[in-house]
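Title: Prediction job returns without error message
Component: structure pipeline
Severity: low
Priority: P3
Assignee: unassigned

Description:
Job completed but the reporter wants confirmation the result is attached to the right record. Sequence as submitted:
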Amino acid sequence: MKRNILLKSSLAILALTLTLAGTSCKSKKKAEQVITPSSEGEIEVKLYCSGDGYFSTAEVFRGNAVGESMDQNTAKRKALNEARTQLASSLQTTIKATTDNYVNSREFNNKEEVVERFESLSREVVNQQLNGTRTICERLTKTPQGTFKSYVAIELGGADVLKGMNDRLSKDERLRIDYDYEKFKETFDKEMEKFEKGR
């Protein structure tokens, strides 16, 4: 009889312990779910050739992109075209701001004509300079769906762009008379510094 009572007591204590342990685990799981409900079912995506090391700086213009296709060469081409488009946009914005600020700081007889001439030359320089880009990162992956993903990052030195602009401006007869390289370089450098401050 004492054995039965002892056995029943032991079983009751064991059942109570298991119940409390189960409740404790459930409450922890509920607490975890409450803390991060939006992360349920989410998968972290790794973006190659992207992040801090791939932003434009005061010294270089950078562009990065991803291209996806059933064909690996098409995926690479898409990524490279998109990265170049991004780089060209950044170049054009910087050069336009530089020429606007430079022209406004100088005394030109016909500012409107000078601005038009600068803009025309800058388009030529951007198109020419894009051929000198350097690939700094390239990754190719295959998705579970069977498509290829190409990740690419390219860069172009700010000094190369400045040299290209200087070569074109100093050869232009109408602009050469009033063109001051040091003043133009100073204005260009200020625009390039904005990449550092923008982060």
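Comment from assignee: result matches the submitted record. The two ends are 79 Å apart (CA to CA).
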